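My main concern about presentation is that the manuscript never shows what a single data entry looks like. In essence, backbone conformation is discretised, so a fold becomes a row of integers matching the chain in length. An entry of this sort, consisting of the sequence and the corresponding backbone structure tokens, reads as follows:
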Amino acid sequence: MNEVRSIDRIDTGPRFTDADAIRLNQMFRGSDTHEMLAGVLDGDLAGDVAIVSSFGAESAALLHLIAQVRSDIPVLFLETGKHFPETLAYRDALAARLGLTNLVNLTPDTQALGEKDENGLRWSYDPDGCCDLRKVQPLAAALNGYDASFTGRKAFQNSARAELPRFEVDTSDAAGRLKINPLIDWPQDDIDAYFEEHDLPRHPLVESGYPSIGCSPCTHKVAAGEDPRSGRWKGWDKTECGIHLPGVDGLAAALDHVFGAAG
């Protein structure tokens, strides 16, 4: 009797689903951030992982936490060509200080810039288009090689981030990459205390009134008491560059149901 040979199939499904994100949120519920990071990285729970870092005002805290677990994790930095010189100097100094051995600078496609931002002023009349060219597209191409990414987002930064969970599925495409927000529940006081405890250097522009730092043309000083990100894209109806898209409402509702029932 001839055996029926099974057909080889390529798995084209997403890497992670909302159910996976809910499971991970449940798994690490009550765990502190270091325990969670060690569990994810040492336990290989998220596959190939990179951290996306702006080397901004509070980036040193997450980079330090991750470096204690794995200093060779790829650190993806979007070198847009529009950063403050202070940011680039801080990036290099902090990477050396923390022993980060795998810093990856992502740059925009030169042909795309030539076609769509030849004079470099697109930020002044189309900030969404500028961010897409200089941030969204380069990062999307780079993340194709990873299953998950760490972000430095925190709930206190603005209302759009207030309900984000630790683990969510990246909604930027259908690949199903996991997006991990280790500091999402850290208040500003805890961030400040962590900097003090570990003697971490601050971004040099923080003391000048920049609590959230992005590209220089679209970053302004923030007055005391204002939303920390209100200086980003000032005067525009824009709060995100586009690499973090909304789309966790269903997941948030599911988490409320799961954790509410458990409580």
